[in-house]
Amino acid sequence: MHRPAPLLLALAAxxxxxxxxxxxxxxxxxxxRATEADSRVLPPDLWFALxxxxxxxxxxTPASDPRDCSQRPLLAADEPTLPARSRTxxxxxxxxxxxxALLVWARLVDYPDGSARGPVVLARxxxxxxxxxxxxxxxxxxxxxxxxxxxxxxxxxxxxxxGESCPSSTTWPSGQATSCAREAVLLPLxxxxxxxxxxxxxxxxxxxxxxxxxxxRELPRPGGGVRRIxxxxxxxxxxxxxxxxxxxxxxxxxxAACDDHLTLVDARPLELSGLTFVTAEDPWQxxxxxxxxx
Length: 294
Fold this sequence. Notes:
294 residues; eight-stranded mixed beta barrel; four-stranded mixed beta sheet
């Protein structure tokens, strides 16, 4: 990995702000008058070093026990990961909030299901360099990532990380695009920390707040052909937070000609209670149960 001219990681300013307004990671990027703050461009290896102390910039490898910039451990002990590899610029993703702050996710480890984990931060450029105003450990789908910071109706900040999960067994023929499941992970921002949350759908038990945004099933039909059932979901926080779903059912003949059988639209209110999102039962699961019941 390319190593740029040395830069200094320095503690925050000599005249600190009140304690409640201090950045959560007291590091700034400085070089003379922090020319990076003027250009607002950092090389990828420096981003990794800032977000994950101990990252070896010359080899692109994270520390054996990676931590975020506030020195909290990033990995759970019981998560089986893929073999370690050198990280590249493709392992960084960026987004912006509505007020111009920067979201950065540095993926340090990979998982067999096509997700990755690493530090995610909310950063702001200041005259002296870069301030970290939010930090956490994010595990999310690792391909075609989109990061955005939204606000719930009560003003509570919420990170939504969208991406595609491509399991390690997925093959990628040369020149041929492969479709992978798109998912969204929800992380509330509480006191400058992005915290893992759960979701409860109807009477289902709590599970991590990771939502499948698209799904598709094909069920065999008597006499040949299939019934194709597809769902597209989206998260809408513009007014009352809700999960929207559009479900389409088509009957397809053995010759692949398809006729629409049924189209459904649904909106479920989404509430955050503590660190748990609560919503109604998923109509997709209800529909699948009906379609597969003899």
